[in-house]
Structure formats: C-alpha cells, structure tokens
Design brief:
By secondary structure, this protein is of the alpha+beta class. It has a domain of 111 residues: Immunoglobulin-like (Sandwich), CATH 2.60.40. 16% of the residues lie in helices and 39% in strands. The protein has one helix and seven strands, in the order H-E-E-E-E-E-E-E. The longest helix has 31 residues.
Length: 196
C-alpha cells in the first residue's frame, strides 16, 4: 500500500509541475505580444573628421548601396559615393614594351616575323573596378576574331594596361584591327597591317 501512495504522490507532483510549466509558457506568449518599452539611450557621439595632411591623397570612401547618402546610422553625415569615371585616352601599338609595359616605339606596320604585337591602353580618371577588353581580328579574313583578352583594373588617375598577342609562326600578311572595350562597351579601335 505504501508503494501505491508513493506512486500516486509522484504522479500528482509530475502533473502539478507540467501545469506550472504550461502556465509559464502562456505568460511568455502573452508578454511577447506587448510592445517593448522605447529606448532612452542617447545617440552615439560622432568623432570630428580632420583633413588629411597636405600632399596625401585621401583614402577612398566606402559606401553601401543599401544605405542612403545621409542616414541616422551614419550620424547624419553624407557619405561620399564611389566614383567610376574612367575613359580610354589613347591606344598605342608596337612590337616591344619597356619595363613599365608601355610601348617602346609606336608603329602601324609589322613584319610577318614579329613574334608579339602589343596594344597599350592609356586610361584617365578613377575606377574602383573596371574591365578592359582587347579583341584582335584579321580583317582580310572577313573580320575573324583570333584573340580576346580581358583585364580588371582599379585606378586613381592615369594608368596603362597592356595587351599582347603572339604568333610562334609568321603572321599572315594583311590588315588587322584591335578593338578596345571598357565595361563591355566598345570605346576605341586601331587598325594595323602586317607586310614584308
């Protein structure tokens, strides 16, 4: 009989515990429906920005496309947008480059034995990210493309990007063209010829 009393007491204690736990859950759900109290903390102080010393280029500004130029999260200060204003200023062709990869001597005529032909693309402006492409074609062969190379660049001023095509055999004689594209849009082209 003692065992039966203990068993009944355990059953009642377990049932009471479950009822208390379920009641706690109901109170939590009810408290989640009430709006939180408004925050009373003061906004974080902003540090004054001092100008860079003379002769030092400012660091590039970072901006987030999801955040407007002036927002409370930025302390009310307008952020400077990133600039991608870059353009091709010139394209120079040659059969040799110097140590800085600029064309040593500009030329429009090449010999069939020339192993490499270079196109140095001079750009001006600033780009955090831009894509240059050089597409080489043989005009005598109905404009058939024989090489296409793409380079990603980031620059803060004048820059030179050099493209190279080479042929271990003799180049076929005739008229050729290199077309330069910036961010997928054709912006310059240069014609050249290979002859004896």
């Amino acid at each position: 009989m003692n065992a039966h009393v203990r068993h009944t007491a355990m059953y009642c204690a377990t049932l009471a515990g479950l009822l208390m736990l379920s009641a706690c859950g109901k109170n939590e759900q009810e408290s989640n429906t009430t709006p939180p109290a408004p925050a009373t903390s003061a906004p974080a102080p902003t540090m004054p920005v001092s100008p860079p010393p003379a002769g030092t280029a400012p660091a590039p500004a970072m901006s987030s496309p999801a955040m407007p130029a002036s927002s409370p999260a930025s302390g009310g200060m307008a952020s400077v947008p990133a600039h991608n204003e870059i353009k091709v200023a010139a394209v120079t062709l040659g059969s040799a480059v110097d140590r800085s990869l600029a064309v040593s001597k500009e030329q429009r005529h090449f010999a069939p034995e020339d192993k490499a032909i270079y196109a140095a693309v001079n750009t001006v402006g600033r780009a955090d990210s831009a894509t240059l492409n050089a597409t080489w074609s043989y005009e005598e062969g109905k404009g058939q493309t024989f090489s296409s190379t793409t380079e990603s660049i980031a620059t803060d001023g004048p820059a030179t990007t050099t493209f190279k095509v080479q042929n271990p055999n003799a180049w076929p004689q005739g008229k050729y063209r290199v077309q330069i594209s910036l961010n997928g849009k054709p912006v310059a082209s240069e014609n050249f010829e290979i002859r004896s």
